[in-house]
Amino acid sequence: MSITVTPSATAEIKNIITAQQLGDDTVLRLTILGGGCSGMQYSLGFDNTFDPEIDARYEYDGVKLVTQKKYDLHLEGTTIDFMDGVNGRGFAIDNPTFPKTGCSGCCH
C-alpha cells in the first residue's frame, strides 16, 4: 500500500508525542469513518494497540502508522500532511483515489 506521510506531518506527530509524554509503543491510527456526499471521512488518533491479524503497520521517519488491512485499497495514494499557515493549522488527508464530490441529491 502506498501512503505518504510528509516531513511536516512526521515532525508535528513527533512533537505531539513528546509534548504529551506518550510511550514508545504509541502509534498513529488512521481510520475511515464512512462516505457520503462529502467523500471519505478520516480519523487520526494515537493508540498503543496493534493486532497483526487485522492491522497493517508502516513507519515514516520514526513515526509508526497503523490502519486496518481492510482499508488498504481505499487508502492507496493517500498523503497525510500538516499545514500551519494563515488559513489554519492542522492535519490534512488527501486521497486522490476517492476525491470529494458534490451532493447528488441522494438523500432528498
* Total beta strand runs: 7
CATH level 1 class label: Mainly Beta
- CATH structural fold name: Hypothetical Protein Aq_1857, Chain: A
Return residue spans where pLDDT drops below 50 for at least 5 consecutive residues: none
Q: Give the strand line-up of the largest sheet.
A: 3-2-5-4
Question: How does this model look, in words?
Answer:
- This protein has helices spanning 7-19, 72-75, and strands spanning 3-5, 27-34, 41-47, 55-60, 63-68, 78-85, 88-94.
- The chain has 108 residues and is of the alpha/beta class.
- It has one domain: Hypothetical Protein Aq_1857, Chain: A (Sandwich), CATH 2.60.300.
- The strands form 2 sheets. Strands 3-2-5-4 form a 4-stranded mixed β-sheet. It has a 3-stranded mixed β-sheet with strand order 1-6-7.
- A hairpin with a 6-residue loop joins strand 2 and strand 3 (41-47).
- The radius of gyration is 15 Å and the shape is globular.
- The protein starts with a strand and ends in a 14-residue tail after the last strand.
